[in-house]
Structure formats: C-alpha cells, structure tokens
Amino acid sequence: MSTHRVWVYGDNVNTDLIYPGKYTYTLRADADIRAKALEDLDPGFVSAVQPGDVIVAGRNWGCGSSREQAVTALRLCGVQAIIAASFGGLYFRNCINQGVHPIVLPEIAGIVHTGDVIEIDREAGVVRAAGREFVIPPLPDSVRAILDAGGLLPMLQARFSALSTPVKPEFAP
Q1: Nearest of 89, 79, 92, 69 to residue 143 by alpha carbon
Q2: By C-alpha distance, which of 111, 66, 113, 112 is closest to 87?
Q3: Is 170 contained in some domain?
Q4: Which residues form the domain of 102?
Q5: Tell me, what's the pLDDT at 169?
Q6: Which DSSP symbol is given to 78?
Q7: DSSP SS3 for 101
Q8: Which pLDDT score, from 0 to 100, does residue 147 have?
Q9: pLDDT tens digits for 74-126?
Q10: pLDDT of res. 64
Q11: Which of 39, 115, 130, 137 lies 20 to 30 Å from 29 when distance is taken between CA atoms?
C-alpha cells in the first residue's frame, strides 16, 4: 500500500499537451525532456510535481500520436501511475513499456481533486480515494512483469544479463 498525491486533468488530453511535439526531435537529455512535461496544459506542474505523484484523468488520456516522450516526460517527473477513465491505445502500451502503471478506473475521475491523496495497493488490486475503494482491473502476468521491472527495457536487460553463457545455435559447427 502506498499513498500518492494526485494531479487531476480532464478528457481528451492528447500527447501534444502532455509533451509538446515541437520538442520531439530536439531534446535528448532527461532533464530537458522532464522540463517540458505538461508545459501547455499545466505550466506549474514541473515545478511542483513530486516523485510518487499520480495523474488522474478523464476519458481518452494520451490520445494522438504514438510518441513515447509523452510518457517518458511524466516518468522523469516521478509519476508512477496514471489513472484514467480510458487511454489512447498506444499511450497505454507506452506507459507499460516505460514502467508507468496505467490504471483504467472511470469512476474515480470525478471524485478527486488536484492535491488530494489516494492509496494504491497493487498487491490487493485496489485504489482508495475519497473514502471509497475501487478494484484495479487485473493485467496479464507478462505485463505485470514489465511494470515490476520498471519498464520493458529494464526487464529485457535483466533477463539477458541473467544468461551466464552465450546461447549457441544448434546448427553451429
């Protein structure tokens, strides 16, 4: 069980509002990418967000382009989970790949406000907010493994580094 401060946003927040497209191919350093998170939607976000904070959003969070920087920028700000009524499909998958837990809970968006504190119990599969308890939709074990590792790349790095000897094809001489 962990507690998290929330940032609440509305419906149809697209990837350009999460991370402006004009920076997609110009910024490379983590600090620079982090600094542009939600620049056009909430200019005060970057200076006030704290590690462990959670975003709560309405319908269709992350619609638009498939740019992974729209997740990366939030992860670099310390956002661990995004709870939304629904997600753009590619954004949902980018969250998993980046190690940010995407949680679909349509009921929660209207009952919390920016600055509220919620509890997320991943083991029990529940979110507690505003005196209520919500069941987190279960994810497949393979997806949970990616999230538990901190993202797809860290999971793959751990798996490949665990190989003690190189694998040789059987047909090799």
Answers
A1: 92
A2: 66
A3: no
A4: 2-161
A5: 62
A6: T
A7: strand
A8: 96
A9: 999 999 999 999 999 999 999 999 999 999 999 998 999 999 999 999 999 99
A10: 93
A11: 115
Residue 169 lies in a domain: no
The CATH number that applies at residue 41 is 3.20.19.10
In the chain the first and final C-alpha atoms are separated, in Å, by: 54
Token pair for 5:
């401060």
Q: Which residue has the tokens 């992350």?
A: 62
Q: In this predicted structure, what is the pLDDT of residue 1?
A: 78
**Tally of domains within the chain:** 1
The tokens for 63 are: 């619609």
Please indicate, yes or no, if residue 78 is contained in any of the structural domains.
Answer: yes
For the record, the structure tokens of 170 come out as: 């059987």
Query: At CA 49, angle to CA 113 and CA 86, rounded to 5?
Result: 50
Give the three-state DSSP class for 66: coil
Question: Which CB contacts under 8 angstroms, 24+ apart, belong to 119-126?
Answer: 119/1, 119/2, 119/3, 119/4, 120/1, 120/2, 120/4, 120/54, 120/81, 121/1, 121/2, 124/1
Which string of DSSP letters, residue by residue, matches 105-171? Answer: -TTTTTT--TT-EEEEETTTTEEEETTEEEEPPP--HHHHHHHHHTSHHHHHHHHHHT-SS----TT
H/E run at residue 20: none
